[in-house]
Structures are given as structure tokens and as C-alpha cells.
Amino acid sequence: MGIATINLFSGSYPYTVSKTSYIEFSESVSVESAPQIVEVVLQKEKYEKTFKVQDTENNPINEATILINETELTTNEQGIATISLISGSYPYTVSKIGYIEFSESVSVESEPQTVYVTLEKETFPITFEVTNIETSQPIADAEIYISTFENPFFTDVFGISIMYLHTGSYHYFVTKENYNDVTGTLNVDNEAKIEFVEMTEKVSIETITNYELEITNYPNPTAGELKIKNYKLKGTGEEQLRTTNYELHPEIYSGTNERI
């Protein structure tokens, strides 16, 4: 019942009530000519609990939310938040957008304590869809290089490659034999995403030399650059008009082709 009795002469008496895990209470009582009851309410002592939240590289996480004992805490720039609790066991949850939520229980004892929490960054499925720009057909076995990743990802027979990335900005490079390389920037914003990549086939000099050419060139004669315009490739099933610049070397013609 928490009752203690003492007989005293009339007068004023200071007293102190204490118990482990409770806040000590001191007061004075006046003893008069009749029995008295003195009611004392002891408050349980509270102990400081400090949370320190960081990522997997030991960097502090600012503005992480901690829910404990029906109280919401927010970490500062050092990733720290503090609360005072009475002795006991408390479940808590730590969360922040872009990170995997963390839940655990902590025991509060008779002295200050620090709880270290490490949050892992959340990953999101990113789908690359690689196709031929002219035919819209999927391109299999294309290599996709993503910044921060050492090894490439490969597309399947449907031209699809799926990877899981953290929130952030990534540079990528897509390559495939007989196709022109494609580069781009991918922004991951806390959700799944599809990145469409269209690739163009290369037109090689070896391919051109397999066809009969009808050409108009100038200047003629020349010892420097030979310009060829309005030539037709025969044997492709249809005639194609192109413009090409070639550098003239002894018995060697080289250049690049562009459709017009």
C-alpha cells in the first residue's frame, strides 16, 4: 500500500522520500494535535535516450523520423535526436524517404544511452527497353553501362534489362555490335521507371562497296578532297540518295555517309 507511520511531537519536520527509479521528493510537514495523513506522489525518473542515425557509409542522415512512445522525433544535421523516457522497453521505427524503414525495440535503463541506427538506401526497379529505331524491333544482348557499376547489364531477347538503383542521377552508355552507341542520363526519383533507348544501325564502307555506284564528283581532277554527291546504290531493292565526302588517298577511299 506504500504506507509508513511515525509518532512525533507537535512541530515542523522536513522529510525526504526516495526510491530507485523514482525522482526523490523533499518537503516539510507540520505535526499538530491530531493524527495526519501525508500523501506523497513520486514521479518515475526519466533517462535520456539518444538516437544517432546514419547511412551505410557512416554519413549522418538529417531529417529522419523516429517514432517512439507515441512521440515523433526528427534528427538534426548530425543525424541525432534525443528523448527522455522512464525505465522500460520501447518499440521504435526510423524512416526517411529514399531509405528502407527500420524497426526495433530499445531498453531504457538507469543511465543515458545512445542507440546507433543504420539505414540502407531503398532501390527501385529500372527497366531499359532497347529497340531498333527504324524497325522498332527489340535488340538482344545490348550492353548497358551504368555509372557507379563496374560490369554491364545485358538486354534479353525482348530488348529488356531490369536493374535496381538508388535515388540519384546516373550516366549510361548502351552499345551493340553493328549499332551506333547511345549515351544518356537517367534520374531515379523514388519510384520505378522505364528508360526507352532507340539505336541506329551502322552503315559501313564495306557494305557500300558491295553495290554498283552512279556518282557525280567534284572537283575533277583533284589531289586533295574528292566530293561525291547524288550517287545511287543499286541492288538494295530500292534506290537511295545519299551525300558523302571522301578523302582521296592512293588506291584508298574512305569517308562517312549521311542520308539526306
Structure report:
This protein has 260 residues and is mainly beta. 2% of the residues lie in helices and 53% in strands. Strands 5-4-7-8 form a four-stranded antiparallel beta sheet, with no helix packed on it. A four-stranded antiparallel beta sheet has the order 12-11-14-15, with no helix packed on it. Strands 17-18-19-20 form a four-stranded antiparallel beta sheet, with no helix packed on it. Strand 1 and strand 2 (25-31) form a beta hairpin. The longest helix is centred in the C-terminal third of the chain and has 4 residues, at 205-208. Mean pLDDT is 83; it is low at 207-211 and 230-260.
Keywords summarizing the entry:
Immunoglobulin-like, four-stranded antiparallel beta sheet, 260 residues, disordered C terminus, 1 helix, rod-shaped, mainly beta
In short:
The protein is mostly beta strands. It has one helix spanning 205-208, and strands at residues 11-17, 25-31, 46-54, 65-68, 71-74, 80-86, 88-95, 102-108, 113-118, 123-132, 143-146, 153-154, 160-166, 168-175, 182-188, 193-199, 212-218, 225-234, 241-249, 252-259. It has four domains: 1-44, no CATH class; 46-118, Immunoglobulin-like (Sandwich), CATH 2.60.40; 123-199, Carboxypeptidase-like, regulatory domain (Immunoglobulin-like, Sandwich); 205-259.
> What count of helical segments does DSSP give?
1
Widest sheet: strand ordering:
5-4-7-8
Rg (C-alpha, Å): 39 Å
Main sheet record: 4 strands, antiparallel
Q: What's the shape?
A: rod-shaped
Low-confidence stretches: 207-211, 230-260
Helix/strand-derived category reads mainly beta
Strand content: over 45%
Please name the CATH architecture of the largest domain. Sandwich
Q: How many separate structural domains?
A: 4
CATH-derived topology of the largest domain: Immunoglobulin-like
- Percent in helix: under 10%
Distance between the termini: 100 Å
Q: CATH homologous superfamily of the largest domain, by name?
A: Carboxypeptidase-like, regulatory domain
> What letter string, H or E per element, gives the SSE order?
EEEEEEEEEEEEEEEEHEEEE
Counted beta strands: 20
Q: Briefly, what CATH class of the largest domain? A: Mainly Beta
Mean pLDDT: 83
